[in-house]
Each structure stands twice: as C-alpha cells, then as structure tokens.
Amino acid sequence: MVLPTVTFQDRMVLHDGDREIQLWHPGFAAHTIGDAVAYLPAERILFAGDIAFHYVTPLAFQGHIGNWIKAADRLLRYEADVIVPGHGPIGTKKDLKHMRAYLAIVRREAKQRFDAGMPAEAAAGDIKLGVYASWSDAERILPNVMRCYQEFRNELDQPMDLPRMLAGMERLRGARADHTCL
Is position 52 within any domain? Predict the structure, then answer.
C-alpha cells in the first residue's frame, strides 16, 4: 500500500499546465467523512462524487443529512454547467437541486415523526416520497430516516443496526413492489 504524499484539509488548487483544478472538502461528514469534489472552472465542470446522487435515492447511513444539505448548497454555488455525480447520470444544477430537495423532505418529515415518538421503521413507511418514489432504491428511505433519528438524538457516533436496517429495507422494497402491482 502506498500512502498519499499530498493531502488537503478543506481546499486545494492544483495547476496542470493551463488547467486549474479546485479541490474542496466540506470539513464535515455529508454523505461520508471522506467527501471531496473537484471543479474545473475553465470547463465549468464539477465532479461532485457522492455528495451528488442524480435520480438515485441517496444513502446516508454513514453521513449526516443536515450537513449533506449544507454541502449540496455549497456545490450549487459553483459556476458549473455540468455536474458529474457519484451515482446517476451526468447532469446540471437542476438535478442536484432535486437531490437536495429529497434530503430536505426526508429530514423534515423524519423530524416530525421523531418528535411524535414514531419509530424509525414506521416513519420510513409513513413518509410519502411523491416524485422521489420512482427513483431507484427508494427503500433507502429507511437508513436515511434511521440516520436522521441518530442525528436528532446526537448519536451519530453509534453504529447503525445493520440487520434491522436491511430487513426493514427488504420489507419496504416488497411493500412498494406489491403496491405497484395492484
């Protein structure tokens, strides 16, 4: 294994001939603690990595949804015409805004159910995804809600109950499949 010889904490600018490459790390966990993006200002291309999921349900079982929303807001300030996501098709700011809206809805709806004392699995099944229900892997609503609940309890340092999460996702996947067959 070869360790990196150059690292950066929050921002770094590299020059490759005439090309400028801007690297940015949010300084906190969004999707994960290792999120980083690369921006080519002359080309107006943003390589957003896993901070961007286009038309694929985001998965936050290692991240922080509140911070992920903040990171998406920061990416939207780049002067990018093209955004290359970590998941889904190459897109634009419009596509990133859709993902950000998904995260905001999940966080808001999870908070309402958390405050009402609803268990995470029941909350995930209760949240109406609307247009986002057609995105692939919609059952990821459960780990996203579970992560929100950990965020609300200030327990992000605790491991997620993976067997419970996977079983719950399977139930949600089956329930949605049964519902679409009717």
Answer: yes
What lies within 8 Å, CB to CB, of 55 at 6+ separation is 88, 89, 95, 98, 135, 136
Q: What is the pLDDT along the chain (182 residues), one digit of tens a residue?
A: 888 888 888 999 999 999 999 999 999 999 998 999 999 999 999 999 999 999 999 999 888 999 999 999 999 999 999 999 999 999 999 999 999 999 999 999 999 999 999 999 999 999 999 999 999 999 999 999 999 999 999 998 888 888 888 899 998 887 655 444 43
pTM score above 0.85: yes
Instruction: Determine, yes or no, domain membership for 159.
Output: yes
Question: Number of folded domains in the chain?
Answer: 1
Residue span of the structural domain in which 75 resides: 11-181
Distance of alpha carbon 114 from alpha carbon 101, whole angstroms: 20
Within a domain: residue 2? no
